[in-house]
Fold these 4 entries.
Entry 1:
Amino acid sequence: GAVVSQHPSWVICKSGTSVKIECRSLDFQATTMFWYRQFPKQSLMLMATSNEGSKATYEQGVEKDKFLINHASLTLSTLTVTSAHPEDSSFYICSATEPPERRRYNEQFFGPGTRLTVL
Amino acid sequence: EDQVTQSPEALRLQEGESSSLNCSYTVSGLRGLFWYRQDPGKGPEFLFTLYSAGEEKEKERLKATLTKKESFLHITAPKPEDSATYLCAVYRGSEKLVFGKGTKLTVNP
């Protein structure tokens, strides 16, 4: 299957600083990427949908000025958590879909996740 | 509002003890139900997609089935390496998925 990577795999930062997380599709061009957040023992919650070359679409309740998403190319999307606070500590996971002509089951391929801890 | 409920929250099995995980859903116009496996500290790994009631898919010791209201993930003769959290998600259009909270499966040797 298609491979998605994330960097870094974990990050610890001080409150008030900004953190950037990268999501890359390694062997395919991803027209759409998704950013999720997962708290312990909770389901994956979709934060935003990112399309290459256009503004991200944020889910209700997600602050777009706090979680900046940039999808600069067909293989790279970045999530920047601005002015991070302890309540932003979570597991952030990205996913990507292949172009429609390559899809078999409309599945999303997930990255390994980034553990963010804000002190 | 689309909802996905998985049960049980946690399940402990002995190696070789078959069982089933449940995923019930409410969605207007199902356009796909997905099963993923998630290991601790990792992203979800795709297992199956089901599209219509009556459909079944198999992979090794796993078999997924779908009705109009729920899906089951049957695990036959599980092994310790099957231990993971199994996530169910429904496709709600615009390529978006709605996930359940998952069932944490532990298979003891």
Entry 2:
Amino acid sequence: ETGVTQSPTHLIKTRGQQVTLRCSSQSGHNTVSWYQQALGQGPQFIFQYYREEENGRGNFPPRFSGLQFPNYSSELNVNALELDDSALYLCASSLGRGENEKLFFGSGTQLSVL
Amino acid sequence: RKEVEQDPGPFNVPEGATVAFNCTYSNSASQSFFWYRQDCRKEPKLLMSVYSSGNEDGRFTAQLNRASQYISLLIRDSKLSDSATYLCVGTPSGGYNKLIFGAGTRLAVHP
């Protein structure tokens, strides 16, 4: 167990809807990263939050947005859902944002868009 | 070109076999390297870091060749429990802990 929890575990939405995914970081961790893993692919970096500020973003459109709260938990919001957004969404927390900081992954949210 | 590329497999091997996975990376993913293991639709778990000098952890050996931009993972004496997807991972230079994953190589070990 990594101490990183994600909710919900599974979610079904339809095209055009909006979704919010949640992540509680491990105690003491101030950095949260989000990844999207489509079927048959490796996880792709969406963005990272460090102390409530976005600290880096991958190649995802603006309809993917995030938030980090003072307790360092985080949300990933996706607007105007598309079929290709169907994926496993992984959250990872770390003690800091430095390149040597180990990431601890949650077990993910499986999103299906119909 | 993808930043980290792997042979997708699958590799189907009998128990006890030795199997090797290869991975190449681009300049944008060239700071540090790891192998992760992922069981079906679960979170990836760190298997081992990869160093230029090569490193071993039990039955697993990882190697990095910076000149060729090539990483390998060798699994000796395969067990049924080794069946999983193995993800090759690099990180960019630039001072933060973003992981760049390859698409993964599937391994199926059969009796």
Entry 3:
Amino acid sequence: DADVTQTPRNRITKTGKRIMLECSQTKGHDRMYWYRQDPGLGLQLIYYSFDVKDINKGEISDGYSVSRQAQAKFSLSLESAIPNQTALYFCATSDSGGAVDTQYFGPGTRLTVL
Amino acid sequence: QKEVEQNSGPLSVPEGAIASLNCTYSDRGSQSFFWYRQYSGKSPELIMSIYSNGDKEDGRFTAQLNKASQYVSLLIRDSQPSDSATYLCAVTTGGSYIPTFGRGTSLIVHP
């Protein structure tokens, strides 16, 4: 079984719709992250959480919100989707008790906003 | 602003050759350095980490770090077509341990 899972894997939605991307992990890591990746632009950090009660904005948080429901679950919401949010979204985890700056990525969600 | 720069490529090498991938970073306080491999449409996976100046070898991969010149490189010996992927350089600075990623270098290994 995958250690970091993301649902859905693919999503097509329309402008203005609210959508949620979900991430779950069985690695027991305390830190979780959401990234988006656009062709040729590398990985950009959207939000990150160091524990259940900790939420922090990344470099491109506008238009997004997150919820850390449990240590193992971290969801990303697009309140009103727009076409330039079309991208590949990755959830990642890291372990503050181990190699804290090593990131473990989920399989990704390909989001298309029409 | 922390910057991590990579040549986007593509870097094309013949099978069996040595592929050399380079990365420069702007923050002299950077502490940890990583190379991730990402196949098209897949998620990044860690292949090497390096924390001190010099070389670190793992199988066909060698990471090289030069903090004075602020660059880190990845050498892939005996390149195989299965090495064809995008290689992301990542650097962390300070106590947050959150990496900054470069845009990646596309590597093509042709038979």
Entry 4:
Amino acid sequence: AQSVSQHNHHVILSEAASLELGCNYSYGGTVNLFWYVQYPGQHLQLLLKYFSGDPLVKGIKGFEAEFIKSKFSFNLRKPSVQWSDTAEYFCAVGGSSASKIIFGSGTRLSIRP
Amino acid sequence: DGGITQSPKYLFRKEGQNVTLSCEQNLNHDAMYWYRQDPGQGLRLIYYSQIVNDFQKGDIAEGYSVSREKKESFPLTVTSAQKNPTAFYLCASSTPGLPYNEQFFGPGTRLTVL
């Protein structure tokens, strides 16, 4: 079955700490992978995406993610978080030719100023 | 400005009433989607449409209905058959056929059934 797992439901960090949010997926075939972010009171927006090429992808606001095919993972990282990174983060996966994408349950990130 | 609009932002209805949520996009996207967001459950797909006059059920379609008469519009009706309708509803659109299928989201409608 196709699925996305985000194991961290709520992460609390202090400013300047490093961040890694886990994402594992189960999906047959070639995948497109996404991280979306939902800041408080704002639209869900794309943070970064992978569809081919370099497995290390860089997104907005200093975020990056690495696609490790052998581990079916697409973890999100940021070397030094800021208070403004407080948000909910969603990992998602879709097929290269599919219209639908599947979302994980989300990780709420709280940053202590 | 190109984007997706959803109205209203907040909606209150009495139990047993049908209610229709609006979603309009001016991005010229072919595909549109409706998701339901509940705390701790992420986004779950209700219905999606890849082209005008065609739509498919998602994972949690029971108690919901949609129509796609125009490319720009994809209204969602929450019927009285939906057992737990109180939730945050998100509409999205995309253009399938690109190398990747990025979806663009509207601001959402929070529905509360009293």
